[in-house]
Design brief:
Two copies of one chain form a homodimer. Chain A is mainly alpha-helical. Chain A contains nine helices and no strands. In chain A, α5 packs across α6 and α5 packs parallel to α8. Chain A binds a DNA duplex through α3.
Chain lengths: ~200, ~200
DNA sequence: GTCTATAATGTGATAGAC
DNA sequence: GTCTATCACATTATAGAC
């Protein structure tokens, strides 16, 4: 790569990342071709390799951007500094849902492209996923729960439900904020009157 | 296809389906080659096309098998005829988790190969998914819930949490039955003492 | 029903001019 | 930094012998 870091936004390199993220998110890694990506930014296929040494390194760069953005989004989420720990969990979850449902192709790539599908960088992709999830987990594990509750399973349930929403979410239905609040409330409040 | 239906188990055709399911589940559709599948059953690549007209029709056949097996599994799940509706939900969920976590490559394909990744049969794959989920939903929607609860979101939360477990599940950890019970209990019982 | 041979295509990637 | 030209390769799929 030509410049180490801190290239200004909307540089040629960023355009490539954006185009790659868009296609990876919509169709998957293998289904996306270098030709499509380069075409989107008005470049010829060969030129891409001046910026990235290979297709999988391009995916890795998208993943890195994605993790960075999602971490930022969580830290800045409205309500993340609330005194109520359940509010903080809800804020974290809504920020996550916002990212993967509405806005960023980068976030969607994190969810839909599985590390195993790209052996050359599988370990790096996994590490990036773990880094994000650890941060996410730290907000959820701050809750004080009844002693018989498996906190890890609770967190995985929440993350799983959220990530899967990418499959059924439609923009004209409930908002990410509504969905997030509903998921958290389903955990907080009892559904079974006899329990 | 040579025979319309009802070929006996372990016919050559079934071996092909098994091999295909195994690879699709482990690596994805695109990442799997006809060579690998044919090799597994001691056949040459070209011979596969006597049994299936194309790779995506082979995937479709795997999907169909998968849906059939998962539906069967739900109907026969222990506890599915319980008088307690929450027990029936748990039985349904555990049957689902059993299928996608432990046993069947066919079930895993249903979860991990997204219809959009195979445009030629995307609509058929979606229809098969819907058929299964409708059956699943009928068991869950039989619950009587508090009026302020969105039953659809509750169901989607459960399915999402279950499907996502494929990402983090390890055979030496909690069993599918334990995970399923935990998920259902997290919904039934309140986590927040002040609520 | 399977094999041999091969067609047809699309792909990631490279070398070197500009 | 981009383009031109192209390589090298893997893949799905087909035609026809056995």
């Amino acid at each position: 790569m030509p410049q180490a870091k801190q290239q200004k936004r909307n540089s040629r390199l960023d355009q490539l990342l954006d185009a790659a993220a868009s296609h990876f998110a919509a169709k998957g890694y293998r289904e996306t071709t270098i030709r499509e990506i380069s075409g989107d930014v008005g470049m010829l296929p060969g030129s891409v390799y001046y910026h990235f040494p290979s297709k999988h390194e391009l995916l890795l760069a998208v993943y890195e951007q994605g993790v960075g953005r999602m971490l930022q989004r969580i830290e800045k989420a409205p309500g993340i500094d609330s005194n109520d720990p359940w509010k903080r969990v809800e804020a974290t979850l809504v920020a996550h849902l916002d990212a993967i449902l509405d806005q960023s192709d980068y976030a969607r790539v994190l969810i839909s492209v599985r590390p195993d599908q790209v052996p050359e960088v599988a370990d790096d992709l996994k590490a990036l996923r773990d880094r994000y999830e650890a941060r996410f987990a730290s907000h959820i594990d701050a809750l004080t729960l009844p002693p018989d509750v498996d906190q890890r399973l609770m967190r995985l349930m929440l993350i799983g439900a959220a990530n899967w929403s990418q499959i059924w979410y439609r923009p004209n239905g409930q908002s990410p904020a509504e969905i997030g609040k509903a998921f958290v409330d389903l955990l907080r409040k009892p559904l079974d009157p006899s329990s």
